[in-house]
Amino acid sequence: MSTAAPHPAGPDQLWSVEEHLEDILTTVRPLDPIELQLLDAQGCVLVEDVTVPVSLPPFDNSSMDGYAVRVTDVAGASEEFPAVLEVVGDVAAGHAEPLHVGPGQAARIMTGAPLPPGAETVVPVEWTDGGLGEGPVTQMRARSLAPEAARGDVHVYRPAEARAHVRAKGSDVKAGDRALEAGTVLGPPQIALLAAIGRGTVRVRPRPRVVVLSTGSELVQPGEKLADGQIYDSNSFALTAAARDAGAIAYRVGAVADDAETLRSTIEDQLVRADLMVTTGGVSVGAYDVVKEALSHVGDEDEAGSGVEFRKLAMQPGKPQGFGSIGPDHTPLLALPGNPVSSYVSFELFVRPAIRTLMGLEDVHRPRITATLTADKALSSPKGRRQFLRGAYTDGGVRPVGGTGSHLIAALAHADALIVVPEDVESVEPGAEVEVVLLG
């Protein structure tokens, strides 16, 4: 959680992107580890190395449906001169019925079943008559339909080398091996491995709980009818989805009207389920930008180290930003601008790294590469501002998508990258190399 208030700054100070981000990342701390059931740990970061208590597979087992035999008994077998072996019974996966394969004998074996003592190899059922005496078969008949196939004789038409179609004990991992190392994000394959080695719980940093709320009396819930002067609330949906994409458990709060007391009350109510709070809108200099007013009295504002600071950043879009901690638990809060593109770009640059830091990840940033600008004309950028333009990246090239307006959300849906234009660059010609933040 947050441990200190942001660095104080004068009202006219212009912060760089790096300064603002550094302030966030030095304030936000990884969440404390907890023990979770496997499925609850999906998406979480492992905080300890996990060693293998039992080898995988734990015993030699068959990789095919067929017959467990001795190598010498099928040497030289062919369709013209098949090896004829006595079937002594079935070995099914999960059944521990004791069977021994002696000279001239075979055990019908199923995939995953342990190789019985005395057997040295497995002959696939397709190389046999399935014990039915009717020539080569393609599969075994169900035991309920042909119980006689579990006894009697089987004709084998091909030889098999030693250990053929046998999965050796420990061929996947051996007891004492390191299965997973600390810092691993637990996805489905990692959950599968933990289950396979018998781990029912695991120690991880939990996925952070992120509460997202948008502000503005003009905002209407999608699905409702718009009145004059109203627009649909897209920001809270976009940021909630983005928070989940970053690895968080995200809660979306409906749009809050431009009333400081209502906003203050809503935020205080949400603190109980938040490891991080994100607001969008109400951070500029308008008469109805109530976030500043509301956040100056949220929770226990007298608690040492609490407080939210509002800043101007040398970037476009996203100049107005707010950051700090609120309430008795010093819950981090990032206040983002309300224009859709400004809000989303700000999330990618500042909120996503904060979420990934709370998760305990080492690499918290989106990948950045260099690409060739494929625009039809030069890109202009305001002096002294770092510009982030929406772009589409393909095969080493990137092209702008949509205009520069921070309200142009349609183009955002077709962008998978941000084109970065530095503060000291006012024009970028087609064919120039540019820095690109990959969003996909």
Describe this structure as you would to a colleague:
Residues 1-5 have low confidence and may be disordered. Helix content is 17%, strand content 29%. The two termini are 28 Å apart. With 440 residues, the protein is α/β, with parallel strands linked by helices. The chain has helices at residues 17-27, 71-74, 188-196, 235-246, 260-270, 291-295, 340-359, 409-412, and strands at residues 14-15, 34-37, 45-46, 50-51, 61-62, 66-69, 83-91, 105-109, 121-124, 153-156, 166-167, 178-180, 201-205, 209-215, 219-220, 231-232, 249-256, 276-280, 307-313, 315-316, 320-326, 331-336, 368-373, 379-380, 386-394, 397-400, 417-421, 427-428, 433-438. The strands form 8 sheets. A 7-stranded mixed beta sheet has the order 1-19-21-22-18-14-17, with helices on both faces. Strands 9-6-8-7-10 form a 5-stranded mixed beta sheet. A 5-stranded mixed β-barrel has the order 23-26-25-27-29.
